[in-house]
Amino acid sequence: MTGRHSAADDPLAPTTYAWAVEASDLSVHAGHSLAVDRLDLRLRNGVHGLLGPNGAGKTTLMRAVATVLRPAAGRLTVLGHDVAHDDLRPVRRRLGYLPQEFGYYRNFTVREFVEYVAWLKELPAGTIPAAVQRAIDRVQLTDRADHRMKTLSGGMLRRAGIAQAIVNDPRILLLDEPTAGLDPDQRLDFRALLRDLGTDSCVLVSTHLVEDVAAACTDVSLIHTGQIVMTGTPKDLAAAGETAPGDPGDSAAERGYSALMRRHREATRP
Ligand SMILES: Nc1ncnc2c1ncn2[C@@H]1O[C@H](COP(=O)(O)OP(=O)(O)OP(=O)(O)O)[C@@H](O)[C@H]1O
């Protein structure tokens, strides 16, 4: 794996910025829609869940933090760099990103796919084989490492996607629907991996699965029509559910999510 440098020789050392991700009054377009609308968000290390209904703006926010989309207005800094104005290459080397749908050469093996991303992230050549092996092991694809991508199941593909996202030991890890297609055992293993990753990096996970958030996230932000509705801990979500037994959901956290979204819709109804 790549070694961590000291603050003195690393311009992206955490000591040089207060927040790993800081969005202030951020607006971002997706096509012609204003999908992120004057949003404020501040994230440090930890596992941050992003929950919201279809079309809420989760993917668009992720794409902006991944420096794929430019802000239309407001300010977004990632690892202390302003994504609208600064050189983003050092940031991109320190990012890991699992998009909802990711591209790959079908004939690549899992190892070749992850190696290719390691090379794109400019990892020192000598560190690549070990970094690739560790990433593949962490997502439990060890026995498939030399199988072609086209032969993997949907859940295995997702795990290969997670492996490429973590191969550079990223400071910021963006995972868009990472548990889609994983079987129950794999979801449990993945939650443990998330908690591990969040100890020394900033992980933002978009999901529809409230239970994943409750089990693996240090905090959660609810997003609706491009704005953050609420940020709190999974316990806050469950507590909101305890006081709203009539709202839909199979657990206190799910009922809390439903209740908070309902209250937000009622409060903002014209
Ligand atoms: N390429 C596009 N062109 C036009 N509108 C788009 C485009 N991509 C997204 N949108 C719109 O932007 C809004 C936010 O979409 P986004 O994909 O960010 O939401 P999401 O929360 O990730 O949704 P989901 O949970 O369904 O993945 C939606 O209203 C969507 O219709």
From TrEMBL:
Transmembrane segments: none annotated. Residues 261-270 have a biased composition (Basic residues). CDD domains: ABC_drug_resistance_like (cd03264). Keywords: ATP-binding, Nucleotide-binding, Transport. Residues 238-270 are annotated as: Disordered. InterPro entries: AAA+_ATPase (IPR003593), ABC_transporter-like_ATP-bd (IPR003439), ABC_transporter-like_CS (IPR017871), P-loop_NTPase (IPR027417). GO terms for molecular function: ATP binding. It comes from the Bacteria. Residues 21-250 form the ABC transporter domain. Belongs to the ABC transporter superfamily. This is ABC transporter ATP-binding protein.
